[in-house]
Design a protein that fits this description.
By secondary structure, this protein is α+β, with helices and mostly antiparallel strands. It is built from 32 helices and 31 strands. Strand 20 and strand 21 form a beta hairpin. The structure holds adenosine-5'-diphosphate and magnesium ion. The site of magnesium ion (MG) has 5 residues, from helix 4 and strand 5.
């Protein structure tokens, strides 16, 4: 491997490590910095501490190639770079399992935030890759733009000044892959929300939102793009060179999305930002009250209204909260009015709280997204980027807090680098002359002492009952701290400063480690109290906006807590305490940022400014301690473990004590004695070069060892492989031989089997042949025998048959002869019988004649008549009794009658039949009721009208005439229709009314009463036509099997205007019969004519139209159809009845 030539020591521009500076003085120190700065070398080491001078221009030293160059290299190997520090920290985290922290300090604008980002991006670039890891990295990196948008602002010192402290723990797994992180934020400078010093801006997000958001978004947020519309935005520096707010807005939105903000969360955040802007525009005017006091009123309610709409707050609630204040004390509630000044104070307090709580929420939200999932122990790298030491013209509570924080960091630095280091030398028994340095613990104590520290007193003042003002606070300070060396005020008893007239009233001055700072007490009490009227927090809690509600939990009326919340100072002190304890558990890595000029300009190196920073950062002391001391130390065991391969005696195992092993090693390597010292438990190496030398030797040695290991391993591997091959060969050969013999044996075996099978086959065939021959011979003998026996049998059969035939012929001939004899005998017998009968008849006649002649004289003359009469009587009796038994049924239609038994009774029999029928009809008639009679009368009338005249008639005979088919009196649908007649409805039926124009049918209800024929709509029951019966002249029907009928109207009558009606009914016979019946019973008019003909004329309006019925062969769908053929003809086709 090629050894990198351009090492730290080869760097020609000044010296890369201040430890090597010769001669060492403040001038040479600053000169070295300047020289390097002029040559674009912005990083310089003091041992392992990196000094970074802000170049105020982009440098080409952060490329991916540079990352590769510094990756896995020794810290002192290459020229100084922040990457070297990041790499060192990352590797000792990954390989040595030591938690790290990167402490970045320096004034505002010195480049701390940039440095922290560089460290993070370096670590992101060199740590593991993979989809999940990349996502974590991306989220960690993208949290920066979001936090910067909400927490950074332009100040006079820095265009992108962090207005909050940030400490980020990045968590790694055992492989060094990032798992997530936790961000802690410290005290956002919220006063900036409502007021910015001249030349400074509010937080970036306000400007970014107004310049970058789409018109649509702005409209939704009820905002205007014009900055000048908002009181909270300072205008003189609204536009910053080199800062593109619109683009940054898009970056921020994108970053929020990557970090994991939901779309509705982003919207809520923007709504809150908009609400703060709106809040700033709410103004108040005084309104005099009768008791002489002024009460504030909102001047123009438009902004208030829009803000309330944005946050879903009821306007009246907020308005009231700006005019009144409820004070709760000891279960009492007192409402006091606010004057205009108080209202403004309340408004600003609300805006500040709203914004700072939003900011904290955002930090928490980011933490939720980036927190590590796995529960195993993580390695942690903390990056601290906290606001730098600040001295402004007007310094207030915020600067006080910020500077306090910086004091604490300086403490840590002193603790860990200066004191710790010196103490270690003493502990290890290394010869050491103490180096003086300023320990700022005394200043920390002045501020944070529990009893009489400034913060404690401020808290005391805030909690004290009675009138409390900033002045009373100052008085208290004057009383308690006056003796302190680092505290000054006009009234301080410290006579040293009594003559100092530069100290105004209402101020105190603290001599910080970084310089004197004059603090104005105005606002200290208020800011420490950080009070938000309860009415306002309650108003916020009532908002119909999830985020707002969440931000003001104390507004929940259910959780009224009369205890004061902890003061801002107290909270800050506590969180700084936690931070310090956290940092102390980690291995520190320092980046000390230096600001080369106050103009934020490149290439300018203001020596006085740098000198001041070098002094207060204690860098000179740092170098001195470093130079006097040793660059590197390590316990003997790990040292021996690391370098034991450099000496044959210690390699591979050293059995004795570790220290002796190390001594042996150093002696063997011939390292000059002044280059190192032996401590009690550690070896101290004075110069990085020595360490570098050791490392280089170790690297080479490791290469050699690797080669050796490789060689041995390869030899071993080849031999093992060979042995394996040999063993395998024997096995293979054995297996093969076995296989070959097996094959040979199998071949012989199969050949033998074949030969054997052939021989056996041949023998078998031979035997078969013989057996077959034998069998054939036996068969031949049997056949011959069978033939012979057969011939014998047939001969015998023939003989027997001949014999039988002869016998049969004899029998037949005999039978014929016998038959002929028998027939002859029969004929003879028959003739004889005939003769005998004739003789007997003749004999009987003759005998009768003889008897009659003989007995005639013995009979009386009338005896014959009597016998005759008796016989007749007897016959008649028998006849009647028989008739009685066989009488037919009583039904008048029964046609049966018993048959006539004697011809002479023919007349009687017919007469009796007639009488019986009449009698049975009478009996039948006597059983009839009046109604039934009417029905039959109607039927009779129908029969008279239609029988044999219309082919439809027979089918109607068996149908009872129901009359009201619609049940019109019961059906509620026709109630109205029914009630419109006085008379009884004789017939109600649905008919088809034939359209006169086209012959199509429409259903209608036909009603018949004594006086009228009515046609009504079937659905509505509305009467369509009502014809008085006298207007009806005749009805025409066809002779066929159809239901068509025409109602012909009297010419000139009122009903005849439209012409005659052509209708079709399923109950035609009944309808016409009823019509006819009414006509025949009415006395006032002539009887209705019923014309039955297949062609008749009807009057349709003016026209006379012929309706013609044509019979057709029945097709499928046996229906009657009606068609208007022309002006004069309407044709009805009727299928012939089957
Ligand atoms: N390494 C650097 N390279 C280029 N410019 C830098 C670098 N460090 C700081 N700057 C410039 O200085 C400005 C202030 O730096 P920043 O880190 O925000 O200061 P701080 O956080 O200390 O207040 C940055 O906006 C940037 O323009
Ligand atoms: Mg910063």
């Amino acid at each position: 491997m090629e050894v990198k030539t351009k090492s730290l020591l080869d760097n020609m521009i000044g010296v890369g490590d201040m430890v090597l500076l010769e001669p060492l003085s403040e001038e040479s120190f600053i000169e070295n910095l300047r020289k390097r700065f002029d040559h674009n070398e912005i990083y310089t080491y003091i041992g392992s501490v990196v000094i970074s001078v802000n170049p105020y221009k982009s440098m080409l030293i952060y490329t991916p190639e540079r990352v590769e160059e510094y990756r896995n290299r020794n810290f002192y190997e290459l020229s100084p770079h922040i990457y070297a520090l990041a790499d060192e920290a990352y590797r000792s985290l990954r390989d040595q399992d030591k938690d790290q922290c990167i402490l970045i300090t320096g004034e505002s604008g010195a480049g701390k935030t940039e440095a922290s980002k560089l460290v993070m991006s370096y670590v992101a670039a060199v740590c593991g890759k993979g989809q999940e890891v990349n996502k974590v990295k991306e989220q960690l990196l993208q949290s920066n733009p979001v936090l910067e948008a909400f927490g950074n602002a332009k100040t006079v010192r820095n265009d992108n000044s962090s207005r909050f402290g940030k400490y980020m723990d990045i968590e790694f797994d055992f492989k060094g892959d990032p798992l997530g992180g936790v961000i802690s934020n410290y005290l956002l400078e919220k006063s900036r929300v409502v007021k910015q010093p001249r030349g400074e801006r509010n937080f970036h997000i306000f400007y970014q939102l107004l310049s970058g958001a789409s018109d649509d978004t702005l409209k939704k947020l009820k905002l205007d793009r014009d900055f000048s519309k908002y009181n909270y935005l300072s205008l003189d520096s609204a536009v910053v060179n080199g800062l593109d707010d619109a683009t940054n807005f898009r970056t921020v939105r994108n970053a929020m999305q990557i970090v994991g903000f939901m779309e509705d969360e982003v919207q809520s955040v923007l709504e809150l930002v908009a609400a703060v802007l709106k809040l700033g525009n709410i103004e108040f005017k005084p309104e005099s009250r009768c008791n002489g006091t002024d009460e504030s009123r909102v001047k123009d309610k438009n902004d208030l209204k829009e803000m309330c709409e944005l946050l879903g707050i009821e306007q009246s609630v907020l308005e009231r909260a700006f005019s009144y204040r409820t004070v709760e004390a000891k279960m009492e509630k007192v409402s006091t009015t606010l004057n205009v000044a108080q209202a403004y104070y309340a408004r600003d307090a609300l805006a500040k709280n709203l914004y700072s709580r939003l900011f904290s929420w955002i930090v928490n939200r980011i933490n939720e997204s980036i927190k590590a999932q796995a529960k195993t122990r993580h390695k942690v790298m903390g990056v601290l980027d906290i606001y730098g030491f600040e001295i402004f013209e007007d310094n207030s509570f915020e600067q006080f807090i910020i500077n306090y924080c910086n004091e604490k960091l300086q403490q840590i630095f002193i603790e860990l680098t200066l004191r710790e280091e010196q103490e270690e030398y003493v502990r290890e028994g290394i010869e050491w002359t103490n180096i003086e340095y300023f320990n700022n613990a005394i200043i920390c104590d002045l501020i944070e002492n529990h009893q009489n520290g400034i913060l404690a007193m401020l808290d005391e003042e805030c909690l004290r009952p009675g009138t409390v003002t900033d002045e009373t606070f100052l008085d208290k300070l004057n009383m308690i701290c006056a003796e302190h060396q680092h505290f000054e005020s006009r009234l301080s008893k410290n006579s040293k400063f009594l003559n100092d007239h530069s100290l105004p009233h209402c101020c105190f001055r603290i001599q910080h480690y970084a310089g004197k700072v004059l603090y104005r007490v105005e606002g200290f009490v208020d800011k420490n109290n950080d009070l938000l009227y309860r009415d306002l927090s309650q108003a916020m809690y009532k908002a119909n906006h999830t985020l707002i509600k969440h931000l003001f939990p104390e507004g929940n009326p259910a959780k009224v807590n009369l205890k004061r919340p902890p003061t801002a100072g107290f909270q800050f002190k506590a969180s700084v305490g936690t931070l310090m304890r956290n940092l102390q558990t980690k291995n520190p890595n320092y980046i000390r940022c230096i600001k080369p000029n106050d103009k934020k300009a490149p290439h300018i190196f203001t020596e006085s400014l740098v000198c001041h920073q070098v002094r207060y950062l204690g860098l000179m002391e740092n170098v001195r301690v470093r130079r006097a001391g040793y660059a590197f130390r390590q316990a003997y065991e790990p040292c021996l473990e690391r370098y034991k391969m450099l000496c044959k005696r210690t390699w591979p195992h050293w059995r004795g004590p570790a220290r002796e092993g190390v001594e042996m090693l150093m002696a063997d390597l011939q390292v000059p004695a002044e280059e190192f010292s032996y401590g009690r438990s550690k070896i101290f190496i004075r110069n990085p070069r020595t360490l570098f030398f050791l490392e280089e030797r170790r690297r080479q040695c490791l290469q050699d060892l690797a080669t050796l290991i490789q060689k041995i391993y390869r030899g071993w591997k080849c031999r093992t492989h060979f042995l394996l091959l040999k063993k395998s060969q024997i096995v293979v050969a054995a297996w093969y031989r076995r296989y070959a013999q097996q094959k040979k044996y199998e071949k012989i075996k199969s050949a033998t089997t074949v030969v054997q099978s052939y021989t056996r086959g041949w023998q078998a065939r031979k035997l078969l042949r013989e057996l077959k021959h034998q069998k054939r011979c036996e068969e031949a003998v049997t056949t011959i025998a069978a033939y012979w026996h057969g011939t014998q049998a047939r001969m015998e059969l023939r003989r027997l048959k001949q014999e039988v035939r002869n016998k049969h012929a004899v029998t037949v001939i005999w039978a014929y002869w016998q038959g002929t004899k028998a027939r002859r005998e029969l004929r003879r017998l028959k003739e004889e019988a005939k003769r005998k009968h004739a003789v007997a008849v003749i004999w009987a006649y003759w005998k009768g004649l003889k008897v009659r002649r003989e007995y005639r004289k013995f009979f009386r003359a009338n005896a014959g008549k009597k016998i005759y009469d008796f016989t007749i009587q007897r016959i008649m009796q028998k006849y009647f009794l028989g008739l009685k038994r066989t009488l037919p049924s009583m039904s008048p239609v029964d046609k049966n009658w018993p048959a006539r038994p004697y011809v002479f009774l023919d007349g009687v029999h017919t007469e009796l039949r007639r009488i019986f029928h009449l009698w049975r009809c009478k009996k039948y008639k006597s059983k009839f009721t009046e109604e039934k009679k009417a029905v039959y009368e109607e039927k009779l009338e129908a029969s008279e009208l239609f029988k044999d005249k219309k082919s439809l008639y027979p089918s109607s005979v068996s149908q009872p005439f129901k009359g009201d088919y619609l049940e019109i009196s019961k059906n509620p649908k026709y109630q109205k229709l029914n009630s419109s007649f006085d008379e009884k409805v004789l017939l109600a039926d649905v008919v088809n009314k034939i359209n006169r124009a086209n012959g199509k049918g429409t259903t209608r209800i036909l009603l018949l009463t004594k006086k009228n024929v009515v046609l009504a709509d079937q659905k509505t029951g509305q009467v369509k036509a009502s014809v008085p019966l006298p207007d009806l002249t005749s009805v025409s029907v066809s002779t066929q099997n159809d239901g068509f009928f025409a109602l012909r109207l009297k010419e000139g009558s009122a009903s005849a205007v439209k012409g005659d009606f052509l209708l079709s009914s399923e109950h035609l016979i009944e309808t016409i019969t009823k019509l006819h019946h009414i006509g025949s019973t009415a006395s006032d008019r002539e009887q209705l004519n019923v014309d039955i003909s297949d062609e008749f004329l009807v009057q349709f309006k003016q026209d006379k139209v012929c309706v013609k019925f044509i019979q057709v062969a029945p097709k499928n769908g046996n229906s009657v159809s009606c068609k208007r053929k022309n002006n004069r003809l309407l044709e009805v086709t009727v299928p012939a009845s089957a």
